[in-house]
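In the design runs reported in the main text, the only information available to the sequence generator was the tokenized backbone. The following block is the verbatim input for one such run; it is reproduced so that readers can re-run the procedure and compare outputs position by position.
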């Protein structure tokens, strides 16, 4: 199949399968997988123009709603966290898209900077996983308890199952977001989330990722939020920012007729349909997967992507 904007020819099952695979694995940690699809499109498919970023955002738009729906249905969507992420990333992503098209059509040096940021967060996550805190002293206790509960719940007969615990909101203000999950009181700084989200929005707008690959690990490693409660918020934030980014890319396309800026709709939708199925399956499966395994997957994604961006300066 020929994709005119990307100017590539590839069997349609390849992008479909790639979208499914990355979405299934990454959605468990609140990441769409777009950060892995970008190197795949550039290095494997040979799609290198700024339109690859726009196409990556289109993948997010098609793929993410199924995963978000699942998290909402299970009562694990922390709406104040979601609002804070969106409020920060939307302005940032508009700036990022403009920078990508106007100043950095081949942003090798900025990719090195972004890679160093990803590597730093990945190292922080790895250290927190290797150096385990005493049992019951942090949010890992609620994650472990919830995972054990889900295991027991799954073994029970359908008629005797009790409803699984849902997120309970206690406070949402400019200073703090407070909620509880499975008996654990959780608190996060609102302004810290807004500032982080704005910075991530700029990077995400430039590279075609919604930002979940940076925000989700940061929530887990720095803000110490349980991974079972942040995935839905990160995916929803990624979805909204990707919609904004795709619209801006499309709007800017007529002003840059000399290069491909608008998304490749055929390729993006094909990637996205695979991602939609993978996203739903990943969100449905997440509660059965140990939180530590999800965190290690996020760590691997960060380190892998970060190393790839850093090494792109020489290779």
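Verbatim output:
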């Amino acid at each position: 199949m020929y994709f005119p904007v990307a100017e590539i020819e590839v069997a349609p099952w390849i992008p479909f399968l790639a979208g499914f695979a990355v979405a299934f694995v990454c959605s468990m940690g609140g990441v769409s997988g777009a950060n892995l699809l970008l190197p795949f499109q550039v290095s494997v498919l040979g799609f290198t123009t700024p339109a690859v970023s726009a196409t990556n955002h289109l993948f997010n738009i098609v793929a993410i709603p199924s995963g978000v729906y699942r998290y909402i249905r299970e009562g694990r969507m922390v709406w104040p966290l979601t609002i804070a992420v969106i409020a920060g990333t939307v302005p940032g992503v508009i700036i990022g898209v403009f920078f990508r098209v106007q100043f950095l059509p081949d942003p090798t040096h900025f990719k090195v900077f972004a890679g160093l940021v990803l590597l730093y967060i990945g190292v922080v996550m790895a250290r927190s996983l290797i150096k385990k805190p005493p049992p019951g002293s942090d949010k890992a206790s609620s994650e472990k308890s919830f995972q054990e509960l889900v295991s027991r719940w799954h073994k029970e007969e359908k008629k005797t199952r009790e409803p699984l615990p849902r997120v309970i909101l206690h406070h949402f203000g400019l200073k703090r977001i407070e909620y509880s999950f499975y008996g654990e009181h959780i608190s996060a700084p609102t302004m810290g989330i807004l500032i982080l989200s704005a910075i991530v929005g700029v990077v995400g707008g430039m590279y075609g990722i919604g930002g979940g690959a940076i925000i989700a690990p940061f929530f887990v490693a720095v803000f110490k939020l349980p991974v079972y409660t942040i995935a839905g918020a990160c995916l929803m934030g990624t979805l909204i920012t990707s919609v904004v980014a795709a619209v801006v890319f499309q709007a800017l396309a007529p002003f840059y007729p000399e290069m491909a800026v608008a998304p490749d709709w055929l390729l993006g939708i094909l990637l996205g349909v695979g991602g939609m199925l993978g996203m739903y399956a990943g969100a449905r499966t997440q509660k059965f997967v140990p939180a530590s395994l999800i965190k290690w997957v996020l760590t691997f994604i960060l380190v892998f992507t970060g190393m790839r961006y850093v090494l792109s300066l020489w290779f």
